[in-house]
Amino acid sequence: MEALYAITTGVLTACGVYMTLRGRTFPVVVGLTLLTYAVNLFLFSMGGLTTHGAALIGQNEAYADPLPQALVLTAIVIGFAMTAFSVILAMRSRGDLGNDSVDGSRTDRDPDQDSRRESKA
Amino acid sequence: MTLLWIPLLTFLGVFVPALTIRGGRSLCALATSLAPLAALLLVIHAWLSRGDAEVLRASLEWLPTFGVDLALRIDGLSLLFLLLILGIGLLIILYSRYYLSAQDSMRRFYAFLMLFMTAMVGIVMADNLLILWGFWELTSLSSFLLIGFWSHQTEARKGARMAMTITGAGGLALLAGILLIGKVVGSFDLGTVLAGRQQLLASPLYPLIVVLVLLGAFAKSAQFPFHFWLPHAMAAPTPVSAYLHSATMVKAGIFLMARLHPALADTPLWNTLVTLTGLTTMVYAAWFAFLKTDLKAILAFSTISHLGLITTLLGLGSRLALAAALLHVINHALFKAPLFMSAGIIDHESGTRDVRKLGGVIRLMPVTATLACLATASMAGIPLLNGFISKEMFFTEALEVQPFGGLSWIVPLLAGLGGLLSVAYSLRFAYATFFRRPRQQPPQTPHEPPWPMRAPVELLVALCLVFGLFPAVLQSTILDNALRAVSNGPLPTYHLALWHGLNAPLLLSVAAVLGGIVLHFFHRHVMRFKRKFTAHDARYIFEGAIQRIVYLSQRGIDRLENGSLQRYLMLLVLCSLLAIAPGLAQLERLGGSLAGQPLDPLLVLGAALLIMGGVLTAALHRQRLVSLLMLSVVGLVVSLTFARFSAPDLALTQLSVEVVTMILLMLALFFLPQKTPRESSGGRIVRDILIAAAFGALIASLNYAVLTRELDSISSYFLANALPEGGGHNVVNVILVDFRGFDTLGEITVLAIAGLAIYKLLNRLRLFMPATDLEGRVWAADRHPVLLMVVAQTLLPLALLVSFFIFLRGHNYPGGGFIAGLITAVALILLYMSRGVEWAQQRLTFQFQPIAIAGVALSTLTGLGSMLFGYPFLTSTFGHFHLPLIGDIELASALVFDGGIYLAVVGATLMILANLGKLTTEYRPNKDTP
After folding, report:
1. Which CATH number belongs to the domain containing residue A111 in this structure?
2. B605 touches chain A (CB under 8 A)
3. CB A49 to CB B597 under 8 A?
4. Which residues span the domain enclosing A13?
5. pLDDT tens-digit profile of B41-95?
6. Which of these, A66, B54, B365, B446, has the minimum number of CB atoms within 10 Å of its CB?
7. Inter-chain Cβ pairs, chain A and chain B, closer than 8 A
8. Do residues B393 and B406 lie in contact, with contact meaning Cβ atoms separated by under 8 Å?
9. How many domains does chain A have?
10. How large is the ipTM?
């Protein structure tokens, strides 16, 4: 089960990273959200995977580690704040710059190719 | 503690000019001179009342952990330099009063001058190498201000920048050297360092230390090849040149070499480096002094040459050479300062410093010219003047000491050549300015300056004569004491006198004088010869070098930083990859000792859904809506995962956040392009997939490694104390609102700030709103479906009730302020969605910003409340209360804190979502209608 959990976290991380490397704002925001899920799952598992052990005193015999849970709870809310901020920033940049490229002004050109061209020149 | 007053007095002097300038320029000059005068008297008093002590010390503890104390000392060497710095400083203040024109800000000038004086006093009094270095850098800084005093002149600005760059760079080398010394000796305390000679010499770092320290000293004292900044620093007002370039700033390097002489010198490395640099500088600069036509340029190169002479003496290493070096420090200051001042007077009165335009000045300004001629004679080393005494000692030592074995004859040869050239340029200086018939009329007809302007020159030239005739006065009072501080072991027996009999040094001297006179006759031929060379202006070379460096670094920056965020992120991911990978590689094997838990079908299904959802989100990312739907699948399954692994609070939070996030992203997507254009090249996609896969694999390995190992957590403390200390059964909630309440407070603050920032970002934002969806279908005409309206409205009171219930039970069962806040927010958003903004706006007339702020404030106040009862911030309390009808209930003060969280979450979430929703309507955020 541990292996399956780890693989799932890994796949979500990979998908999130791939999305954040895109050149348009919306996929990047979605990628960030995906990455947030992966990170939360990862952090949560730092306390081990416990079944039937909610950290409610007196209700269970063995308790899951409550500390990562508390940390992840705040991480979820902060993650929401971050997602909201970045997506609104994306909207604002589209409104002000007229496009939704992450690099601002460049719309139709691939910035990395540009730099390659410059360094050759 | 009187010692501390000496730099403090000069530092206080920085503020005096600004306070007294209203009283007139004379009062300002007088008041400013009080500080150095008092400091000078203090120095003399402290020295005379020292008793048997050789060194006076005072120190204030400053940074004991770094071994840096504010430690000051006065020994013979400090005394010598202090007298020069403060004494000549006083004269310069007097001289500047008449030199500065009405347009020059005297206030600023004196303030800079006093700052510089403080820095110099600090250098020579420092009893700790790091303190010394601090003042050393301060001299670079304040001399920058002084040299660039006429900042409207390009020359001044460039000269100041050059001096700052060179001496500052030398300062960095010196710092490196000092740190290494501290490492070897174990302390920065000067006494310890000077006593640590054996350790330093034995250390393999010794050559590096010597080179670094000498780099600092050479840059400061304008030794070849760092000499070129000094002639360009002549763009400064003449009093500055007279002060910085005769007595103080350039002598700082000499002082440093003398100061560290007992610890570092007298090794083959030191002797070779210092002697050769000194000799080269002396001859090279003397030659250029002979070729220059600007009075100040001649003096500048002559200064470099004389500094080279002192450096040579410090390198020769014999005790007598040291004595000669120290004596020449005094002598050079005494004749060079009046020469600079006279040059300033001539420039001031005649309007030019070009010797080709001057001539016959002796008839127009007989007194000044006579004084200047005496000082020039001292510079040339003519008998009866002080310059002669130290030059004779120099020649003696040059003939005596054999530093280079069989090749040692080079020392007296170059010394004699330097002497010859110095006679030649002195003659040129005096003859062309004072005696020659003028070839052209200078811009103004010069006349004698006011007496107070000439008085400093008179005093200094008088001293030149006195010390030239009776040099023994200096020996007992100053020189022997200084020598004791600089050399190890007993004092050499020497006798300062005018006449030592007919000996080799005297013959060398005579030859030099005669040679100099002959060379002067051929000046015109030399100048003709010089024209065959292309002139190199050090300024252009320097500026060119600086521009090249700037260009190169700009290219480096452009390469790394091309403005593409995509690329930065890629580099960031790559760097974290490189940071994590070695750590994992050090593990013996990935899996740990823990036995795995069994799988069940439900888990496999969940994992499959997650993986599928994640991959599809990424794969279909160009169809944004589909990608978003896939993302929501991931979010939901994540929340189920939390539920499965005993984290009910997390599951609830994740679920409600998921709802809010999806509404937010859908709304945002409405205003953004629905499709992502195909723009990444194939290679790019492959590259990104590889990076992402590598990163994912690394995270998976890391996760697996952690999951299969025993964990040692601090959580047992929280589990044990949640009930007795926090009064709650739900440990997660108790951690949030009690144990780690401060974190939570910070977090809701961040949430509220994000909400406010978003509100600001949405201000007056106008975006293109598509009339149809991607396939060209018009949006449904039924904007507010009846069914949704009914459900939403029915749901609202229920949702509020549920959120209240969840809020209250949070301390003991899954729930709490976060979840309750999110549920309330979702219910209100649903109302907005079903009824439209207009309808909701008419009924929800309040603003959300104050709610969020009130929430943060409430939580903070709860925390502060505990301080009223004498407990630390955010201490909570709880108790049992009996309420009629309801019965026994347990209430904790943390509940109020949780209430703050609730309000902050509701306020911030609605601030974000409702304002975003309002974008389409007339209620859109606008600065004018808050």
Report:
1. 1.10.287.3510
2. no
3. yes
4. 2-120
5. 999 998 888 877 788 888 888 888 777 888 899 988 999 999 999 999 999 999 9
6. B54
7. 328
8. no
9. 1
10. 0.87
